Amino acid sequence: MNRFQANLCLLLVTFCWSAEVIMAACVPGDVVPFAMTCVTSLIGGGFLWFLFSKRIKKGFSAQSKKLILLCFGLSGLNCGYNVLFKIGWKYFDVSSGAFLICLTSVVLPFVLIARKETVEKKTWISSGLIFCGILFAITGLIGRGQIPGFIIIIIGCTLRVLFICLLNKYAKEYDPVVISTLISLFVGIISFGIWFGIQHNTFGAIQWTGITIASLAIYAYFIITFAQTVNIFAQKRTTAANATIIYSLQVVFSVVLGAIVPATLIDPVDITPKVIIGLVLIVVGTMVEVLVFRKRQEGNIPVSE
After folding, report:
1. N or C: which end of the chain has fewer CB within 10 A?
2. Gap between the Cα atoms of 40 and 176, Å rounded
3. What is the chain's percent helix, strand, coil content, to nearest 5?
4. How far is residue 17 CA from its own chain's centroid?
5. Could you read off the pLDDT of 190-206 as tens digits, one per residue?
């Protein structure tokens, strides 16, 4: 897989994540968010274990203790920013919430500097354009009462950048299938702890109808097993900055899907001129990061086979 193919994979993953809201809408309303995260993560991890058990055992036996700690830490960050996003989203409508998640790309350069990593000029330009797109789309739509939600999402974006940076590093050192499996299982376990605090009867609180089982299984396969694993494979051949900027296109897919998907599934999104201009700026910002302005050799990114 070369850099171009990795970017295409990241684009596919971004589309899958944007469709997540539609898949989640198919899950019956009596399934609380943490129950859904727990069940789908455990099912997704189970799928991967069933499909690649020999490969997972081989990759896991090499450096098991270190790998367990790394994946547990990544799972904690994953749960952390997802929980903060879920809390922050309650303050905003669908469109505003989708745009604010793009602040991950705005936070990116500052996190890289804090980690003493080099930030390329094009990454600064990309982040600046994306920030302008966000401001253009949400100006006038956020009031004082939504400031707490804004702060919560900023913290979530910071944790997400840390997660992406660490995942990008370790995807080059370990087998992506092993990482994806362990993250899925650990996220399931951590989510179960939170779920237990909300509903002590946990699995007994879910009405296990055919629709519920099918919805959770489909979500687990496409979002956990497929999208997450493809994402980690792509991280082997790209940079954290490149991946983070491409993820910003999720808002484009989300807004378009929100406008065309029936209102019976999700709240409809009104595509205004301000939203369109905001989306265009985000797309341009993404292209600045993705396009190669000078010749590079693929070998610039070390990869452990």
Report:
1. C
2. 19
3. 75, 0, 25
4. 7
5. 999 989 998 889 898 88
Distance CA 245, CA 161 (A): 11
Centre a 10 Å sphere on the Cβ of residue 275 and count the other Cβ atoms it contains: 23
Count Cβ atoms within 10 A of the Cβ of residue 21 and give its class: 0-12 exposed, 13-18 middle, 19 or more buried. Answer: middle
CA–CA–CA angle 159, 268, 284 (5° rounding): 55
pLDDT, one tens digit per residue, over 124-164 is 999 999 999 999 888 776 777 788 888 999 999 999 999 99
At residue 57, φ and ψ (nearest 5 deg) are -65, -40
Residue 64 has pLDDT above 80, yes or no: no
d(CA 117, CA 91): 34
Residue 272: CB atoms within 10 A of its CB come to 12
pTM of the predicted model, to two decimals? 0.85
Q: Please count the other Cβ atoms lying within 10 Å of the Cβ belonging to residue 58.
A: 12
**Tally of residues, the chain:** 305
Token pair in block for residue 78: 């994953």
- Give the Cα separation of 85 and 150 in Å (integer): 10
Which residues touch 86 (CB under 8 Å, ≥6 apart)? 33
Both structure tokens of 5: 């193919």
Residues 91, 148 contacting (CB under 8 angstroms): yes
What is the spatial distance between Cα 71 and Cα 170, in angstroms, rounded to a whole number? 9
Look at the alpha carbons of 9, 10, 15, 18 in this order and tell me if their dihedral is positive or negative: positive
Q: Is 270 left (phi over 0), alpha (psi -120 to 50) or beta?
A: beta
Return the structure tokens found at 23: 């898949």
